[in-house]
């Protein structure tokens, strides 16, 4: 592994102190909730939101989470997965006073951030295990290794995969327990390439895949990498290498999804486009409920409508894509242009 760049040593010290402080809390959580977690059963058919980074997965999850029948991993559970149960009282309120005033929106866009809003499981996994692609934003010169091992699951030993699965299932049990046994609504980009592993655990799982115009995805994903690295990287990396990684990872990511989606049982997968979701969210939600047989759309519709109205003034990021990058996307990402009918011009 490449060395940590000297200029980032203060960040490394902060991470080490945070880990040291949280260790006793993790021990208390195991002692207090260990048996309860062993008895906790995860709903056999969780709903998984899939799609590449910056394709609209967060927007879709936020919409679906308005249905009160679903349980979601929230911001507190994501940043403190090791003690999110024992700390859900005083510690949660303490962190809310510290974290939320300094992080009112996510670093890569204007989406509001709160310890109460749904978050991605990969963030929680990155806080408990090495088996997460999110570490690529901390150690960007190792991005290829993290992508190969923890997105594609290539070069991962059986014991390492078993460790990842154990951590993931424990996280889902914690979220289930915290949500009083509700059916889980999960959004984790890297699950898009883990369909076989998910089906091994949840044969009746439901999947919603969302796709977006490749040009927008490239520009926004590149911006995502730079935004996250600016606050957590411990290594320097050249901008051109970041763009090269985004171009390469996308192709391998999509080929893996397209190869695996046929293993999903009929009636358990629906694909939608981000543009359709933005233009007519209620109609797209209704289609999702119908095609996945989720039932009770009418009961959830008022909550959906209220949330949609509350986000009507949201301003999306605007990115300018230069001609060389646009050409690279057009030439390298033909799989998505062809599969979902996007105009190359």
Key traits:
Rossmann fold, single chain, alpha/beta, 345 residues, 5 strands, five-stranded parallel β-sheet
CATH-scheme architecture: 3-Layer(aba) Sandwich
Going by CATH, the homologous superfamily would be P-loop containing nucleotide triphosphate hydrolases
- Succession of helices and strands: HEHEHHHHHEHEHHEHHHHH
Largest sheet: 5 strands, parallel
Distance between the termini: 41 Å
Helicity range? 40-55%
Anisotropy-based shape: globular
Tally of structural domains: 1
Q: Tally of extended strands?
A: 5
> Which stretches of 5+ consecutive residues score pLDDT under 50?
none
Q: Could you explain the architecture of this structure?
A:
- It is a single chain.
- By secondary structure, this protein is α/β, with parallel strands linked by helices.
- The protein has a single domain (6-314), classed as P-loop containing nucleotide triphosphate hydrolases (Rossmann fold, 3-Layer(aba) Sandwich).
- 54% of the residues lie in helices and 6% in strands.
- It contains 15 helices and five strands.
- It has helices at 9-39, 57-64, 75-79, 90-102, 121-126, 143-150, 158-178, 195-201, 214-232, 239-260, 274-279, 281-291, 297-310, 323-332, 334-340, and strands at residues 47-50, 70-71, 183-187, 206-211, 269-273.
- The chain has a five-stranded parallel β-sheet with strand order 2-3-1-4-5, sandwiched between helices.
- The chain is globular.
- The N and C termini lie far apart (41 Å).
- The mean pLDDT is 92.
